[in-house]
Specification:
It is built from 23 helices and 13 strands. The chain is an alpha/beta fold and 528 residues long. It has a six-stranded parallel sheet, with helices on both faces. Strands 2-1-3 form a three-stranded parallel sheet, covered by helices on one side. A two-stranded antiparallel ribbon has the order 10-13. The structure holds adenosine-5'-diphosphate (ADP) and zinc ion (ZN). It catalyses: Couples ATP hydrolysis with the unwinding of duplex DNA by translocating in the 3'-5' direction; ATP + H2O = ADP + phosphate + H(+).
Length: 528
């Protein structure tokens, strides 16, 4: 079994248990392998220094401990197992969920002159197979096990520890915060052509012809269409989705990785395991299905730590497209509605929504999301009358045993004569959609799903709390900006923040600069 132990490379012999278990910093004290570790970092991996937690993790792995690592995308998880694997004799076994990730790793290791090869037996879905990995600890109890992931709630951590038979382990949890990412939600125009112009302009502004980016779309057809439209607007683009021949997909991927095309347009299937460090923007053409998905998809930007942009184009009309996909999943609608709340709010910090989702304490956003950066005041516009009128329309339709989609409801209501019709001109179509969405999020409306031979449709019905509005006991409000064209302001805000970061400063330094700037402005306002 000494033979099999060595397959995993990380021998337990010669392990040095820390003298006291007084927390992470203990893993930074001197170790006998320090010099070797430093040499490998510099000469083999070519890295100027360690990043947060890397050294502690390496020390605890080399000490023979089981380790649980949560580190955001781009944090540098690979080094945490690659370096100990090189330092110790024997073989390290790396278990990875995706073929593209595995290929990437093997290629990267070989390029450094580290011998590596791959076994690819996984089934269609890696999750059930992962359940069998508990056998590793039973078979090789003295070989340290390292679990690395970008995100895991407390609950998932406990499940994984149980599944892998590692009840006790050292934990290293980094914040989910990605301080170099600027998050923005922009209005998605209903006119497809105008929408494409917006995207093309944004890309030109971020970096004409060079800065690499990803656009996420809802459907395969959209991917192809958008790629063509971008090319027509002078932007090099390729598309990537599950309906393509593997070679064709590989070609698109390679052209993008090697900067032959600037933009790759993909469904969410694209990107799991994408290891391109210099992605400067991730644009969402359609909302994600949850805050978690959005965090992961948008997080493919800026893995090299340089300032990068995450721009989500939001339109309420995209909600039923997503909800009819996710409604059958446990918590599918709940998660989607959290995502919609994230998009609807003109006030709430977008980073805060991410911290909240992962159960992490809120940290300062430093103006790196458009809600935090926007100086325009937001007011709560009372839309109770509109809400009531809309609910009456739904009530009437339901009474006739008919069904209505969100878009039909908005159309019907805008066309209605009489009381509610008189209210309608005040609100644009988009505003009306936002009111309907607000009603859905608050439980005054609910979604119901109907199936045809070809699709699942989402319809609206009165929600459990609708009576309170119809009876006049509740108010409904919508957050709206006071004055100013949103998009013009947005362009400048993002540019200012990112230019500051682009000037070679770290995220932390730009924070200091922008704080000083705020202070200067406040003082100027107070003292003339
Ligand atoms: P993760 O797996 O956590 O997403 P990776 O291990 O792929 O991250 O590393 C992301 C990028 O950061 C890679 O380009 C890697 O070379 C780089 N990197 C890792 N550690 C360091 C470090 N200590 N200093 C500088 N760059 C690093
Ligand atoms: Zn913010």
């Amino acid at each position: 079994s000494a033979q099999s132990d060595s397959k995993f490379g990380l021998h337990s012999e010669g392990q040095v248990a820390p003298s006291s278990a007084s927390g992470e910093s203990n893993w930074l004290r001197p170790f006998q392998w320090d010099e070797e570790v430093e040499k490998l970092r510099k000469n083999l991996f070519g890295l100027p220094s360690f990043r947060t937690h890397q050294r502690e993790i390496i020390n605890s792995v080399l000490s023979g401990r089981d380790v649980f690592v949560i580190m955001p995308s781009g944090g540098g998880k690979s080094l945490c197992y690659q370096l100990p694997a090189v330092l110790r004799p024997g073989v390290s076994l790396v278990i990875s969920p995706l073929l593209s990730l595995i290929q990437d790793q093997v290629m990267g290791l070989k390029a450094m002159g580290i011998s590596a090869s791959m076994l690819t037996q996984w089934g269609h879905d890696f999750r059930p197979d992962y359940r069998h990995l508990g056998i590793l600890k039973t078979q090789f109890p003295r070989v340290p096990l390292v679990v690395l992931t970008a995100t895991a709630t407390e609950r998932v951590q406990a499940d994984v520890r149980e599944m892998l038979n590692m009840p006790r382990c050292e934990k290293f949890i980094s914040s989910v915060n990605r301080p170099n990412l600027f998050y923005e939600v922009r209005e998605k125009k209903s006119n497809a052509n105008a929408m494409m112009d917006d995207i093309a302009n944004l890309i030109q502004e971020i970096g004409p012809g060079k800065e690499s980016g990803i656009i996420y779309c809802f459907s395969r057809r959209e991917c192809e269409q958008i790629a063509v439209e971008l090319v027509q607007r002078g932007i090099t683009a390729a598309y990537y989705h599950a309906d393509m021949e593997p070679e064709e997909r590989m070609r698109a991927h390679t052209r993008w990785i090697s900067n032959k095309v600037q933009v790759i347009v993909g469904t969410v299937a694209f990107g799991m395991g994408i290891n391109k460090p210099d992605v400067r923007f991730v644009i969402h053409h359609t909302i994600s299905k949850s805050v978690e998905s959005y965090y992961q998809e948008s997080g493919r930007a800026g893995r090299d730590g340089l300032p990068s942009r995450c721009v989500l184009f939001y339109r309420c009309a995209d909600l039923p497209r997503q909800s009819s996909m996710v409604f059958a999943e446990a918590a599918g609608l709940h998660n989607l509605y959290s995502m919609i709340r994230f998009c609807q709010s003109r006030r709430a910090c977008q980073r805060a929504a991410i911290f909240e989702h992962f159960g992490e304490n809120k940290q300062d956003c430093h103006g790196m999301c458009d809600n935090c950066a926007d100086p325009r005041p937001v007011v709560d516009k009372d839309v109770t009358e509109h809400a009531r009128a809309l609910l009456r329309v739904v009530e009437e339709i339901n009474r006739k045993d008919q069904k209505v989609t969100m878009l039909q409801l908005v159309d019907q209501w805008k066309r209605q004569p009489g009381d509610s019709g008189r209210l309608a001109p005040e609100l644009t179509k988009e505003d009306t959609e936002r009111v309907v969405t607000q009603l859905l999020l608050s439980g005054y409306l609910k979604e119901e799903f109907g199936h045809t031979a070809y699709a699942t449709n989402a319809y609206l019905a009165l929600g459990p709390l609708s009576k309170a509005i119809l009876d006049g006991h509740r108010f409904v409000s919508l957050e709206v900006f006071v004055g100013g064209a949103a998009s013009r302001w947005q362009d400048n805000a993002a540019k200012d923040r990112l230019n500051l970061m682009g000037s070679g400063m770290t995220a932390e330094q730009t924070v200091v600069v922008s704080k000083l700037d705020d202070l200067r402005q406040r003082l100027a306002a107070e003292h003339g």
